[in-house]
Design brief:
The chain has 395 residues and is α+β, with helices and mostly antiparallel strands. The protein is built from eleven helices and 14 strands. The strands form three sheets. A six-stranded antiparallel beta sheet has the order 1-2-3-12-11-10. A six-stranded antiparallel beta sheet has the order 9-8-5-4-13-14. Strands 6-7 form a two-stranded antiparallel ribbon. The longest helix has 7 residues. The protein is globular and about 75 Å long.
């Protein structure tokens, strides 16, 4: 089972921008370099954390369900394996405004990890009391005798735990591994920056909080398949991975400064393929996209048009606004890469092949995936962008 998936989604929708603790910023999945018999799954939350952002330093939120989802069977909808994390904060010394003092820590965060292998019907606790290390506040707070009197490396190592079901788990602050010139790309596409200006990593030297699970491959295999594939392209050995965060539907603010969360759980953030909600889905639909699952998108086609004809295509096509974004000048929509087939905005792409002998027995055959890949005229990118963003790209 070989795969490598990454994504990015920092403050990408209006509602989740107001709720950073639940904001799923990245997901990564890859065969573990230190143990090739395992897959490492990573979901990051809380964008653009300042490592020195005290006195209330960032950590995972309470009353949030952080979930990592694995789909290993394309013949049915839903997850086959799901990991759920819930976090609890404790103030060991509420008499001080310091986060750490004399071996005591405020906002000390622990977690419970549960696993479901039946589509979320039942859950088993596999880590009952995992520990989240604090951010590296500074030498006095971490290394010094007036603080925790230990090394930060020791705290990080102690935070790695082995679940009762065999997975290795870590939850805690890390340097944000993604890199992008946020300032440039959202300045009306000024990326690479024009006029000699230097592009820069907009999230460099910022932290995020990561949930990392190293899972034995056997745990993620589709039921009934052999331990190793005969053919590396065998779809039975391909998994889909996405992550989410959910909150209770109602929060009541009490007059004594406390609050109460109640009601059903509602998904407020999700992430799978890179930059989907960031640059493909337009502003008016971003909150809605965060609220639905990848499985909902199969039957809910209201967002499909943004993949068939993405906005970015308008700025890469000289027939529309190809000259409006100078930085995109090297990026031109291919109108003749396959002879007469035009993949420009609103064009037919490969639709003229629908039902022809040329596609018989291929993925474009209606008997296979043709109804999805060639749904109609004027949907130029139905054969590449739509399936890529809906099914992922195995590596």
């Amino acid at each position: 089972m070989a795969m490598s998936v990454s994504a990015s989604s920092h403050r990408e929708a209006p509602l989740i921008a107001n709720d950073p603790l639940a904001d799923n910023t990245d997901v990564y999945a890859f065969r573990s370099p230190d143990d090739p018999n395992t897959i490492t799954l990573i979901a990051c939350y809380i964008p653009t954390e300042l490592p020195h952002g005290g006195p209330n330093y960032n950590t995972f939120g309470e009353n949030i369900r952080y979930e990592l989802h694995v789909d290993n069977d394309v013949t049915k909808s839903g997850d086959e394996v799901t990991y759920r994390f819930t976090f609890t904060r404790t103030n060991q010394d509420p008499s001080t405004f310091f986060n750490i003092r004399l071996g005591q820590q405020n906002l000390m965060t622990t977690y419970k990890c549960e696993r479901s292998t039946d589509g979320g019907q039942t859950w088993t606790i596999i880590v009952a009391n995992g520990k989240v290390p604090p951010p590296y506040i500074g030498e006095r707070s971490i290394d010094g005798p007036v603080g925790l009197n230990t090394s930060y490396n020791s705290l990080m190592q102690q935070a790695i735990t082995t679940a009762t079901s065999g997975e290795k788990v870590f939850c805690g602050p890390v340097d944000d591994p993604f890199f992008v010139d946020l300032g440039g790309v959202f300045d009306l596409g000024n990326l690479p920056r024009q006029g000699g200006a230097q592009s820069r990593d907009g999230i460099g030297q910022y932290n995020t909080h990561a949930i990392c699970i190293q899972v034995p491959i056997t745990t993620l295999l589709k039921a009934g398949v052999a331990a190793t594939p005969v053919n590396i392209l065998d779809g039975n050995f391909t998994i889909g991975f996405w992550a989410s965060a959910s909150r209770r539907i109602t929060r009541t603010l009490n007059i004594n400064g406390t609050y109460t969360d109640s009601g059903n759980w509602v998904q407020v953030s999700r992430l799978g393929m890179p930059l989907t909600n960031e640059v493909v889905i337009p502003l008016g639909y971003k909150d809605y996209w965060n609220s639905i699952t990848p499985y909902d998108e199969i039957t809910d086609t209201s967002l499909d048009g943004f993949f068939y004809n993405p906005e970015l295509a308008l700025y890469m096509d000289n027939r529309f606004f190809g000259g409006a974004v100078p930085a995109f000048a090297p990026l031109r929509i291919q109108t003749k890469s396959l002879g007469a087939f035009d993949f420009g905005y609103g064009k037919n792409g490969l639709y003229s092949l629908k039902g022809s002998a040329a596609v018989a027995g291929t993925a474009l055959d209606d008997a296979i995936f043709g109804t999805l890949l060639l749904p109609g005229p004027g949907k130029a990118r139905s054969v590449d962008l739509w399936p890529i963003f809906h099914t992922g790209v195995p590596n």
